[in-house]
Amino acid sequence: MVSVAQVKIMLSGGPVELATVDRRVPVAELGRTLKICYRAGYEHFVHDGEYQTIDGCEVAVFHWTNRTKIAE
Predict the structure, then answer these.
(1) Fewer CB near the terminus (10 Å): N or C of the chain?
(2) Strand partners, 11
(3) CA–CA distance, 72 with 62 (Å, rounded to integer)
């Protein structure tokens, strides 16, 4: 079984409710737009290389860029 390395992230901007959830993504996802389904749409976040140290752990910061609606 192959283990995929994960990194802890935090969200900056966008809906406040999304920022309170503990999130991890595969390391390979750091260069991609993170798309989170939320209230009949998608919130888009990108990682621009910023990290913060929280409780002694390095956390990748994803910044909100825009929102799109779910197509019907």
Answers:
(1) N
(2) 62
(3) 28
Q: Is the model's pLDDT at 38 over the cut of 80?
A: yes
* pTM, 2 dp: 0.86
Domain-embedded: residue 52: yes
What is the secondary structure of the chain as a DSSP string? Answer: -PPPPEEEEEEESS-HHHHTS-EEEEGGGGGS-EEEE-SSEEEEEEEEEEEEEETTEEEEEEEEEEEEEPP-
pLDDT, residue 4, reads 76
CB atoms under 10 Å from CB of 65, counted, come to: 13
**Residue 1: its pLDDT value, please?**
61
